[in-house]
Amino acid sequence: MLLDTGGAGPQLGTQAPMVLCDLTQSWSPTGGGGVGTYMMAKRDYVLAHTPHTLLQIVPGPADKLVVNGRHIWAEVGANPVRNSPHYRFILRTGVVRELLARYRPAIVESLCPWVLPWTAIHHRRAFRETALVAGYSTDFPNAHVFRVAQKLFGTTIGRGFQWLSYGYAEVTYREFDWVYTLSEDIRAVLARRKILRTSVLPLGADISQFHPARRDPGYRAELGLPGDGPLLIYAGRLDNEKRAQTVIDMFRHLPPALGAALVLIGDGQRRPDMMAAAADLPIAFPGFITDRAQIVRALASADIYVSGMADETFGISIVEAQASGLPVVGVASGAMIDRVPEGLGLLGPVDDAVAMARNVERVWASGARTMGAAAHVHAQQFSWDSSFERLFGEIYPQALAHAALRARTSRRAADRAYAAALAAG
Questions:
Q1: 188/92 same-domain check
Q2: How large is the average pLDDT for residues 158-168?
Q3: For the CA atoms of the chain, what is the radius of gyration?
């Protein structure tokens, strides 16, 4: 259902060129991450399939502006995040406001929950016609705030911080014209907080590149890994949030006779500690790989994808592994439950390294290659083109429609109009 704008406001369907903006703290040139993958895929889609200009604002070591045709890349100088050397946090919001005022984007898409959403909100108060879209890609009050506070202060105080964070989310995201989540479960979480202008946006993968045909029989030997059993692989940040240590703990519970080896692709604050802890094991740490062709080759050359991540919001890396022909051994939590249906791998309890090891053995014994072939077929339903067709064909028009109503009246009047339209079906 689209709101009736009464003919006011820009519409994507007319294909009139507009400036669009992505705004995030969650960017690192060497840290990987789903937001970075999304932003690069969106850049490619905008330039190939639309007449629009895309402004992408991210943190960097210094202020930098690169204009390349219809793509504008802006880095705002920011200090590194403590204990997270690959990420930076923008506090100089005035610079962001200047960029937004200079380029006057028709739509600002916020891709993180901290500070910058309110920078976008303040910009919209000065330029009322601006449509605001938010990607609620992580249920941060639970996945980030509660888990950290619980570890530091205990469950009771942790729940208090969680409650405050949900209050912040409610106040913040009700200011946006439209919000998208990555699953129906998280959409329901927002609904309970009275955030109702929402859609689900399934993400994608470059399924034309990730393919079993990219398998290289010499990859394992190139890494110096012994054995003729399963080559396990993980790709992502090596930090506490991703629970990468669980994968190493799991490996220690595999029988030596299995002949397994493990590749951990990525970087993060735990990488030095993990390398030291795994010095006696057949585990390779190639670090963060910037060349996507090498990641494609690595995944296709492995046998089983392993991950202990409990708070996966969509699982781009899972889909990439499946497209590469790998079954998945993970945990029955978060989006991994949706990404790994029966027959495509095995999921076990969170933080249970022994159960994960037994699942690796079961998958290998039951025919990992056959299971991986089924996973490859399953992954074909996900593509970046389908994701962005939904973003540009449904979510952005909804945001523009609500912004047009709000610009003529007020946010509350626009909300009442939306509620009335929703009730009318």
A1: yes
A2: 88
A3: 22
Only one residue has tokens 């705002």, namely: 76
The domain containing residue 29 runs over which residues?
A: 12-204+383-423
Q: What's residue 12's pLDDT?
A: 59
Q: Would 7 be classed as within a structural domain?
A: no
- Report in angstroms the alpha-carbon separations of 330 from 241, 247, 347, 382: 15, 9, 5, 20
Tell me the CA distances in angstroms from 243 to 113, 154, 237, 401, 422, one per residue in order: 22, 20, 9, 41, 41
The verdict on 310 and 324 lying in the same domain is yes
Are 136 and 231 in the same domain? no
Are 254 and 221 in a shared domain? yes
Q: Does residue 392 share a domain with residue 370?
A: no
Residue 358 structure tokens: 């037994």
Closest C-alpha among 23, 133, 42 to residue 384: 42
Strand partners, 50: none
Task: Classify 195 as helix, strand or coil.
Answer: coil
> Is the model's pLDDT at 218 over the cut of 80?
yes
Long-range contact list for 420-424, CB < 8 A, 24+ apart? 421/1, 421/3, 421/4, 422/1, 422/196
| Average pLDDT value over all residues in the chain | 89
Whether 5 is covered by a domain: the verdict is no
| β-bridge partners, 130 | none
Enter the pTM of the model.
0.83
Pick from 50-64, 146-160, 332-346, 383-397: least confident: 146-160
* Structural domain count of the chain: 2
Domain final position from 361, 379, 397: 379
| N-term to C-term CA, the chain | 8
> What is the Cα–Cα distance from 378 to 154, expressed in whole angstroms?
41
CA distance 354 to 30: 31
User: How far is Cα 325 from Cα 382, in angstroms, rounded to an integer?
Assistant: 14
Residues 145 and 83 in one domain: yes
| Greatest Cα-to-Cα distance within the chain, rounded to the nearest angstrom | 71
Contact present, 326 and 306 (Cβ < 8 Å): no
Residue-wise DSSP of 15-67 = T---EEEEE-S---TTT--HHHHHHHHHHHHHHHH-S-EEEEEEEESS-EEEE
